[in-house]
Amino acid sequence: MSSRPAARPTRRSARTRERIIEAATEVFARRGVHGTRVADIAERAGIAYGLVYHHFRNKEEILTAIFAERWAQYVAYLEEVARMPLSFRERMGRLIHFWVETYRQEPDLMAVMINEITRSYEFLESHDITAVLVAFDPIERIIAQGRDNGEVRADLDAKLATYVVLGVAEMVLTGYVIGSLPRTDQDAYARDEQQLLSLLLDGMSAGSA
């Protein structure tokens, strides 16, 4: 007997699961995890309430799925940039563009990642922190390679600089998410990218402009 017919429910199930994740991302971004009911997610996804529980035990498990799948993609891109045969400035430009463009294209996802995951002590305490810290490794390698190549000052602590880079990125993205850094068009985001690159690589003194 052919196994092909049995594959259809699997594909359908995968599509339904993705619809649940997409709906939850949108609802979490607006109401927060604690302010969201499973019924809200089902309604946004356009599916029966009970079908959500067929794929996930609760809304916290949906949040974990969002983190696991999206964070893995995020880390994979950081690793890809770390392997690119580019200058240090070009690599940093790629990272900054990726962070800003991800918010511009997927503001709900970034809101969830910032508010419900990276800035949530409750989430971090209940999950393996190494899954978050793995994102630091490729950035530290990029900085260390830049230092070894003479593109970065020789006395720079690569690990400390990694925290600085990620801290700046997180705070700017937080500004976007909460609306304290309002941007209305692509040109504004492009200017932010240029200024962030200049600030991180050249500093803030007038002589470095």
From TrEMBL:
GO molecular function, one term: transcription cis-regulatory region binding
Domain HTH tetR-type: 14-74
DNA-binding residue intervals: 37-56
Name of a matching Pfam family: TetR_N
InterPro entries referenced in this protein's UniProt entry, alphabetically: Homeodomain-like_sf, HTH-type_TetR-like_transc_reg, HTH_TetR, Tet_transcr_reg_TetR-rel_C_sf, Tscrpt_reg_YsiA_C
UniProtKB keywords: DNA-binding, Transcription, Transcription regulation
Name this protein carries in UniProt: TetR/AcrR family transcriptional regulator
Species the sequence originates in: Candidatus Aeolococcus gillhamiae
